[in-house]
Amino acid sequence: MEKGAGSPSMGGSYPQKNAEILSSQYGINLFLAGLLLTFAWAVHAVGISKSHLLSYLITLMLIQLLWMLWYLCRSCTQRRLIRDKDTHAGARWLKCGITLFAVITLILDSFKIGYYIDFSNCLSPTEGIFPVTHAMHTILQVYFLWCHAKDIIQSFKTLERFGVIHSVFTNLLLWTNGVLTESKHQLNEHKERLITLGFGNITIVLDDHAPQCNCTTTTLCSIFSQGIYYLYPFNIEYHILASTMLYVLWKNIGRKVEHHQQHKTPFKFHGITVGMIFGLIVLTSTIAIVVVYLIQIGRSKIKSELALTMFYLHAIFVLALMCTAGIVALLIYRLEDRSLDNSKNPARKLDAELLVGTAAGSWLLSWGSILAIICAQAHPKYTWYNLPYSVLVIIEKYIQNLFIIESIHREQEKVNDDIKTLRIVTISRGSTLSLTPSYKEIYNGRAADDNGEVPCVFKGSICRRENGGGGGAKEETSQENSLVMHSASDFSFYSRNSVTNNKRRILKNIAAFLFLCNLSLWIPPAFGCRPEYDNGLEEIVFGFEPWIIVVNLAMPFSIFYRMHSAASLFEVNCKT
């Protein structure tokens, strides 16, 4: 009987599991085909042009547009179709972040349209169709994520799995295309700097995909061509954030959730002044360092070495501060006795996996630099700063990952009703009255009853109201003794609560500081300040082409790690 009763439920799960496997395989093949097409264009494969790659991406975006329109129409006509929501997915701050990146992506698309108009005589029509399609795709996708990122789909599950996974890998391919285009631009600039500095022992051939015709408006063409590459970092972050949010939506299809109250955790600036001040100092100094670096690098050998030295010293100082802050936070966690939340949560699991997975990109670069310093025969002075910098990058990510992952798994403190109110017993004519004023009133000594009587507990002391009669003195004395004991225990609780609040304040300041530091460390590689290119030592040890391949593969993950860490630390700050 038990077997018969269990069979339907087990049998019902197999089609859904098969749908999950089939949809994931569909998405992977979709991505691999696009990846090979992108690679073929990058290496100038015979018979493969940019128009073929853009046509493939346009087709994928149009299919996703059709699916999103169908989903939105179905949701509007059947509003009660989807009832369950994943309260952990699609946080408001995450939606605001992806909206900001999407707005800058739309500006990027407008620049591409202007660039196509100026070079329309020798560019393929797909280069004009692509930014228009991408702009429509961006607008509808942001609206879709705002409205349905928390959905737990329970109908048309097989069809929806394919639609969502198609969207995930479409965004990953658009991310790959953006990363490749931006990397090729950075590599060309690096090669031009090497030519300026006179490196004759390295074979340098510029990878030029520029149009083979003259621009109709020279000034506008220059603005569009240069502005496009400064906007690419935001486009890259937009697509990777969209793909992660859609992946959580895909994992939630058919999921059974426990209905429990989710406490809102709004972001507040109160209590994080110290962390914000130090973080803003780091952010401001980093922007200044990046500006000076980009101006000085490649001008001359001396200026390039000074720019690299300045970058390494600043980064070493910031990373040392981040390591110290992370260690302090972990020590505070060791002093606390709070259980971890091990419930099933796709969004939280993905966050932890992305932190460790993307950190491997910068770890690869750091170990490459360490090995190059050890094996190199000649060591210019500035290259020695690369050693502590690379070691600190590895250590800092170890500590920060541990802090973030433990923070997002810690259960929030539940405030007991006994903590919210305190029982005050007053002595009045031989009887007791029970009052429950707020904690704030008690702490400030302003609690009083409705009759205007003075409270018995005031700033840790016991005061006795004068009575007209002299009877019942012994009873009053015993009641006073019990009140003294009760008051001592109450204020012992206040002392413990004060320590807890101080720990929480320190943790919030650390999270705010690390949040701004990660934003600061995202800026240099995202906007072209990449000492891994300009150091030169790794290229001598490993060879120019092999090291450039390693940098181009690892750098996108390193850049994404900083933005994802900043997003996770923002959530930690709200939760603490």
Automatic annotation (TrEMBL):
Its main location: membrane. Belongs to the otopetrin family. It is found in: Cell membrane. GO terms for cellular component: plasma membrane. It holds the Pfam family Otopetrin. It is a multi-pass membrane protein. It comes from the Eukaryota. The gene is Otop1. This is OTOP1 protein.
